[in-house]
Amino acid sequence: MKAFMDKDFLLTTETARKLFFEYAEDCPIIDYHNHLPAKDIYERRRYDNLTQVWLEADHYKWRCMRVCGVAEEYVTGKADDYAKFAEFARIMPKLIGSPVYHWAHLELQRYFGIYTPLSEKTAKEIWDKTCEILQSEGFDAVSLLDKAQAKILCTTDDPADDLAWHQKLAAEYEAGKVPFRTLPSFRPDRFLNIDQTENWDRALAQLSERYGIAIDSWEGLTSALKASLDFFCSVGCKVTDHGFLHFRYVEGDHAAVMAKALEGVTLTEEEIAVYQGGLLRFLASEYEARGLAMQLHLGPIRNNSPKVWKAFGADGGGDSIGEATDPFKLSALLGGLEGEGHLPKTILYNLNPNDSAMMATMAANFAAGTEADGSDSGKVQYGAAWWLLDHIRGMQDQIDQLMETGQISGSVGMLTDSRSFTSFVRHEYYRRILCDKLGYLVESGQYPGDEDSLEALGQMVEDICWKNAVNYFGFEF
Questions:
Q1: To bridge 220 with a disulfide, which of 215, 366, 419, 425 should be the other Cys (CB 3.0-4.6 Å)?
Q2: Whose CA is closest to 59, among 93, 83, 35?
Q3: Are residues 347 and 383 in contact, defined by beta-carbon separation less than 8 angstroms?
Q4: What's the whole-model pTM score?
């Protein structure tokens, strides 16, 4: 029997161990999509205990607690910090096979040097030790990220944001006071979701006020969004992001549809699709002109539980896998942009596992770049296993899809999609799974195992872990 989560965790062959320890383990982290608050980084937030680190904003852990019968008082309610942690510790042994179980123990190991399994019996001991460690030097938000070897962090930001904290962090980085870059990402979901009338109206008003541009027409909206994009780029933005419950795409008179919405007319489904398709095409062309990458997150269904919604609101852990994405509509968007010369670098993420093969092959359709030597290949990518799929099986499937229907060597690798400052062990989790898969192919005779081939494979591992992302997004550090 193997030891519990030892140094060879998830590495089942000698070749896998060689690839991980010699090439992957010490790679810097390029985390191009997360939800970390820039304010907490700048202010070097400190934490009193593991509840603040782990349970304050992590809907993954909240879901686990609820499904194990923990009352909401101990999840997002008013119970004290230790009571919440004790409940999480109590249900931990029930989470066998869950990525949350693995992540929590990797975090205990990497940040606190604790190798004891977390349970009801060990909760107080682990609580006391981690509280003591968190009070010592080197455990503020910046130090935690530095311990993970983070070099690039891309947060998630609304077009109306003033990015004040990002500007302050940029000055800190230039002065050598912060060892990594924190860059904004442009997330225009509120402006695309014209069917969410109250949020859409509020978004228009805030953007109008921010840039002093009247948004009373399609021209006003696009002018304000251009101004926002210019500002985001001036603060270092390289990445954009979009989340869709329903991926709609119909070509038509989007300006006329917007005019109807501004007059308070209820739109039909087709009109909503016309508006969203027109705005997404506009945004994509602006991204391409500015050299920004576009991320499309497709397939969740949000806020299913009225109880969770009432207790917490959005991002409370009441979300699940939603509908499959229509491949004809996705192809129409990408093909139309490519035909017009406006297709930006694009990463496709699916939450519905039925979309995995479709999205991997769709990305391959548009992967070719424009350089004659192929140096910019991989323009459209099939992204990392996301959200409810970022477990061992989901990551293995994403890797398999890339190898079987595309090519994994150009992949931009993993990201956290997280709100937690200790969540960066998810990169290690992915790297171990990646190295184990590649090691299996070598040791089963599907790939050569001579010295030159292993060296080339090792370089590929480094590329996937971080170098491809640096080149793809154009990061500098």
A1: 215
A2: 35
A3: yes
A4: 0.96
